[in-house]
Amino acid sequence: MSLIFIYIFTAALFLSLVLSLGLQSRTIARLNGILLFLVGIIGIITYGYGFSVLFPSLPQAVMRTLFAVFGMFLGRSEIGTVSAVPGLSTPVMQMVMYLTHFLAIYCTASAVIAAIGKRLLRTVRLFVFRRMDLNLIYGVNEASVNFAEQIRKEQKGHVIFIGTDPGSRFESSLDRLGCLLFDDSEAKAASPAFFKRIGMKPGERHLSIYCLDFSPSANLRYAQSMNALLKQTGCLPEQASLTAVLGMGHSGAELLAQTNSSAGSSGAFGSVLAVVKPDMLARMMIKTCAPYETMTFDENGRAVSDFEALVIGFGQTGQAVLRSLYANGQFEGSAFRASVVSAQFNREAGSFFYRYPGMQAHDCFTVKECNARSVDFYTYLEDHTKNLKYVAVCTGSDNENAEIAYELREFLARCGSRPAIMLIGKTGVQRLTDSRGLSPQTPFYSTDVLVSDRIDAMAKVINHQYHLSEGHTPDEDWRSCDYFSRLSCRASADYLDAFLKMAGTDRETVIRNGWNPDGELLENLGRTEHKRWCAFHESMGFRLMPPEIFAARKAQFEREKSETGRGRIRIGKDMERRLHACLIPWDALDDLSAEENAVTGKSVDYKEMDRDNVRMIASMLKSAASM
Q1: Coil, strand, or helix at residue 390?
Q2: How is the chain split among helix, strand and coil, in percent rounded to 5?
Q3: What DSSP element (H or E) covers 244?
Q4: Do 397 and 503 reside in the same domain of the chain?
Q5: 8 Å CB contact between 486 and 463
Q6: What gap in Å lies between CA 137 and CA 626, rounded to an integer?
Q7: 382 vs 210, 369, 434, 611, CA distance in Å?
Q8: What angle do CA 372, 377, 379 make, to 5 degrees?
Q9: Which pLDDT belongs to residue 94?
Q10: Residue 608, domain member (yes or no)
Q11: Whether 324 and 247 share a structural domain
Q12: Is residue 84 domain-shared with residue 196, that is, in the same domain?
């Protein structure tokens, strides 16, 4: 019985040693390297001295020393051979030599056991991973490792990395988080053999894929490869979701069309979140501090002042920030104005106002082509502080953002102006306040931003409200939702709390007591919704449909109706050319509704549609709270 106990205890001890060594950090590995070097030096000194005394022949002494030092690491001892040499025969030197041999054997055993431990640990982890939901992250870098750490903290499943760890920088971090790294060609190419290795089969488990490499093109290619693999292996759409960080030159609509499983689509992902970093940073800015938070409204929901914004820096992020402020800074009773400050405006702006002609048509932008620290800028700013509500600093340098923001805060405070000051950096968003200084950064690579179920939760509810009669779930409706409609739902979701502030209420009160705005309040909220809707479309590149094109589309509708019994074309919207007939003032909507209805035979009321969007807020909030 005692022998069995010894066997079990020794095996358990050895296994724990193997696993612990398999988890050794880079620091421990470095210490083992130092120990190896010291043991080798001590061995060379002691054996070199001993054999030089015993063998007068220099080549013989050198070779015996060399074999003795290597033998130390293989468990072979020459202590008895040199123990009679003067200076090595003392008890102290004998103890030093035996200790040196022990440390040499430890170094060898440590290396062997560490290798065995890592293989065993990898095998054990893979065995566990094959039976649970997985998060697959493409791209090994500091940002993606931090993202994986959030996933593990929130217990959202195990994590597998695909890619190359340059210089084994993140080896200890991945071990600590319990992640696996695959850097072989099968994993990088998203081959069926890789799926077989991780045990991914149709109808079993869920796979969340995050393409977070610093190369947007590589992310796009891997997303497409994964899409092909999921279809090839027959996995169900509800088994897989995709988040891909793309560049400004990549089309989120194109990715969604290729990879999303919607009606008439051959895609394999049940959920797709295409993230263009500048656009998402701008959205994070709005979620951190929305323009409505800087405004005051009367009892009927009208703004009591204009909204003026200042955007410093006009690179890709600055352009996305301006579009986002334009889409979210529209309120009944208020005029929107924005100043753009950039010493490199002509070089940075490029085709911005040509791509967004609807924004330019309102003549609400001022450009100052100067440095944000120049005398010209501060002279200009001194005359534009009265209604300044929002400052967005996005120069492309985090240090420069902070320096400019602090200087601005001091100057504006002396002028009696205290706008919201936002810093939009490469990796996140911060707010500079009077009382607490610079807030902690809201990071871009976080589960709140890159997990679709979180960032799009309210957008899914809004989209579902328009399809209640179809009997689908919110997720099913979202999967069949085209890319532009998703953008529209996200814009509505981000603006929703503005309506509550205009009405003097909040989410909890509406969920508890309901929501029934009427009279002048409802009218002003409807007007605001129309202004918001117009600004969103204009920030997406839409402009007012010219009268001659509207007339031509009416004629086309009538031809289709006479030939087939119904007109298929939507008269007032040309998605391909980004034209829309509804980009008109509120007071002109009744005439447009009547003109369209006279042709289509329908009873569309565009004003009432805006009011209905406001009335739906209570049901949307209740639906979101119950999810």
Answers
A1: strand
A2: 60, 10, 30
A3: strand 240-246
A4: no
A5: yes
A6: 30
A7: 46, 16, 19, 40
A8: 150
A9: 85
A10: yes
A11: no
A12: no
Question: Please, what is the angle between helix 58-73 and helix 91-129, to 10°?
Answer: 40
Model pLDDT, residue 264: 41
Tens of pLDDT, residues 5-33: 555 545 554 554 554 444 444 555 667 77
pTM listed for this prediction: 0.80
Q: What is the largest CA-CA distance in the chain?
A: 116
CB atoms closer than 10 angstroms to residue 414: 10
Residue 178 pLDDT: 86
**Strand 365-368 and strand 271-276: pairing?**
unpaired
Among residues 255, 165, 154, 242, the alpha carbon closest in space to that of 206 is found at 242
On whether both 239 and 145 belong to a single domain, the answer is yes
Q: What is the pLDDT of residue 116?
A: 61
DSSP H/E element including 428: strand 428-433
Residue with tokens 């807020």: 617
Fill in the amino acid letter for 491: A
What is the number of domains present in the chain?
Answer: 4
Tokens 């030089």 belong to 52
Q: What is the DSSP letter of 368?
A: E
Report the SS3 class of residue 49.
Answer: helix
CA distances for 410 relative to 362, 378, 539, angstroms: 32, 12, 32
Domain residues for 99? 2-117
Domain-located, residue 502: yes
According to DSSP, the β-strands at 428-433 and 336-341 are unpaired
How far apart are the C-alpha atoms of 103 and 96, rounded to whole Å? 10
Q: What's the pLDDT score for residue 59?
A: 85
Distances (CA, A) of 115 to 29, 111, 128, 145, 185: 12, 6, 20, 23, 22
Q: Are 57 and 64 in contact (CB under 8 A)?
A: no
Give me the chain's average pLDDT, please: 88
Looking at the DSSP bridge assignments, the partners of residue 29 are none
Q: Which of 249, 220, 256, 226 is nearest to 486 (CA)?
A: 256
**In angstroms, rounded to a whole number, what is the distance separating the alpha carbons of residues 69 and 61?**
12
Where the chain has pLDDT below 70, the residues are 1-30, 109-110, 112-118, 120-121, 249-267
- Residue 296 confidence (pLDDT): 97
Q: 159, 152 in Cβ contact below 8 A? A: yes
Instruction: Specify the pLDDT at position 106.
Output: 73
Contact 51, 61 (CB under 8 A): yes
pLDDT one-digit tens code per residue, 480-533: 888 889 999 999 999 999 999 999 999 999 999 999 999 999 999 999 999 999
* CA–CA separation, 489 and 504 (whole Å): 24
| 309, 392 Cβ separation under 8 angstroms | yes
The CA distance from 610 to 531, in Å, is 10
Within 234-315, residue ranges assigned H as helices are 252-259, 277-288
